[in-house]
């Protein structure tokens, strides 16, 4: 039984890579939570996903407060990656980082910053909140293609803790 599961998982991984569907190693789709107040920038990111033929769901929040509410209400499920702007109304990106890192349910969230701020204090504050990367919009490439390409590569190889734990426990149950 265990060998069949491993072979099936491996075939699924190969199929996912060749068809362009971006899913983690246990075939659960990775979603992107885009936290961006600027409609033009949000549209550019979404178009870049389409242009790169990435079929993952992209959910958008207009500020940190809306993003946190979406997470708490389970409108986006794990595994997910957050792409976060810093300069937003109501709850800024840095305030969002502070809140999410204090919430035990979301402390392990993978967050990349995509912002106009080149300020060293924003960069340092973001990394102090354990962001996975910091991108300046003006340097991110035409229509954010470079950022989207990086995310595409990133979630093809990353192991997500939530899925790994669930599947490890189901494997143990299957082997009993």
Automatic annotation (TrEMBL):
Residues 31-152 form the Response regulatory domain. It comes from the Bacteria. The modification 4-aspartylphosphate is found at residue 85. Keywords: Phosphoprotein. The keyword Phosphoprotein applies. PANTHER family: RESPONSE REGULATOR RCP1, RESPONSE REGULATOR RCP1-RELATED. This is Response regulator. It comes from Kiloniella laminariae.
């Amino acid at each position: 039984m265990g060998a069949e599961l491993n072979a099936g998982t491996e075939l699924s991984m190969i199929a996912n890579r060749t068809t362009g569907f971006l899913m983690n190693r246990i075939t659960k789709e990775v979603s992107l939570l885009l936290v961006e107040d600027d409609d033009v920038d949000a549209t550019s990111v979404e178009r870049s996903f389409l242009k790169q033929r990435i079929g993952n769901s992209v959910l958008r929040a207009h500020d940190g407060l809306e993003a946190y509410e979406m997470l708490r209400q389970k409108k986006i499920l794990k595994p997910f990656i957050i792409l976060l702007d810093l300069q937003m109304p109501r709850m800024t990106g840095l305030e969002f980082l502070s809140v999410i890192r204090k919430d035990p349910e979301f402390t392990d969230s993978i967050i990349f910053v995509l912002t106009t701020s080149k300020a060293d204090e924003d960069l340092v504050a973001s990394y102090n909140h354990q962001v996975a990367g910091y991108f300046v919009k003006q340097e991110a490439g035409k229509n954010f293609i470079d950022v989207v390409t990086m995310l595409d590569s990133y979630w093809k190889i990353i192991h997500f803790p939530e899925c790994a734990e669930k599947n490890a426990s189901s494997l143990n149950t299957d082997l009993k």
